[in-house]
Write a structure and sequence with these properties.
single chain; 315 residues; alpha/beta; Rossmann fold; Ribonucleotide Reductase Protein R1, domain 1; six-stranded mixed β-sheet; five-stranded mixed beta barrel; 23% strand; globular; disordered N terminus; binds guanosine-5'-diphosphate; binds magnesium ion; binds zinc ion
Amino acid sequence: MADNGNDNTFRALVTRSTGSSYMILSDDDTEREAHIKGNMRIKGIRTTNPVAVGDYVTALTQADGTTWITGIEPRRNYIIRRSTNLSKEAHILAANIDQAALVITLNHPVTSTVFIDRFLATAEAYRVPALLIFNKTDLLTDSEKEQLGELRQLYESLGYRTIAITAIDSNTREQVMPMLTGKVTLLSGNSGVGKSTLLNTVFGKQLTRTGNISAAHDKGMHTTTFSEMYALPSGRVIDTPGIKGFGSVEMTKEEVGHYFREIFEVSRHCRFSNCLHTGEPGCAVLEAVKNGQITFSRFESYLSLLGDGEEEKYR
Ligand SMILES: Nc1nc2c(ncn2[C@@H]2O[C@H](COP(=O)(O)OP(=O)(O)O)[C@@H](O)[C@H]2O)c(=O)[nH]1
Ligand SMILES: [Mg+2]
Ligand SMILES: [Zn+2]
């Protein structure tokens, strides 16, 4: 790319962030460590990390061999997570993504429908296409298999793509690859659901550490701390840290209903245009929940996001 006349300036893609430094991949396919100056900040957003995985940056290698990131290209989009310390600061998980995939397990560990719906609502808010990957199908009981079928049917009927896989099975590669080809995919999911295993299967080698589920709590252990990008023959996957909650976009109460497709659709028939569907007269959404046109679990998730306003916000 054009630069300021300095021969050592080049364009690169951020593939990994460790907090203190970054790995960047230049157009000539060289990956190297790079640093940022402490005062580099992007206008308008207060983030704990000014540079994120997926960012295109300009960088400069100095005579002493150290590389510095000197600029960030405008982002097409970015996904943030609120910091857990209730500060106003946000952490950018990934930038410039084409789709977001959520890995879900109905059991071992349980992924709640509220968690799924928060993810989908957030994806809607970012206008990023979402993909649901149901994993560990080998562990499902008959009734869980039935539940899987119902969930897939529900989400497919809402227009979301779903697949059911067993990440430890090598055939999974052929199943998953077509959905990742040519795209930058953000991979999310509670820790322990098999994200690292899936990446290993897809890439055919041990890329990341996989953690065993701790028997005591049936919760995954945290093995990935920072976002990391992997290259496919065509396309890229960004593995994000074991995030607890993805529903982190600032939404006004009125907006929440816009991010549930079927609720938004039906809400046009509510008597009041600012109806929150919590008992207002002439509410078409409550009617649709009653007659089963809107699935109860979705409505429950809607209410959960609606109730986020105050102290529950950053779960
Ligand atoms: N039975 C079974 N176990 C799996 C499957 N996928 C992952 N696991 C196991 O689940 C545990 C957590 O997987 P890991 O990939 O570390 O999860 P991550 O935290 O999402 O990256 C590991 O012990 C994996 O071997 C699967 O499809 N079936
Ligand atoms: Mg992992
Ligand atoms: Zn209503």
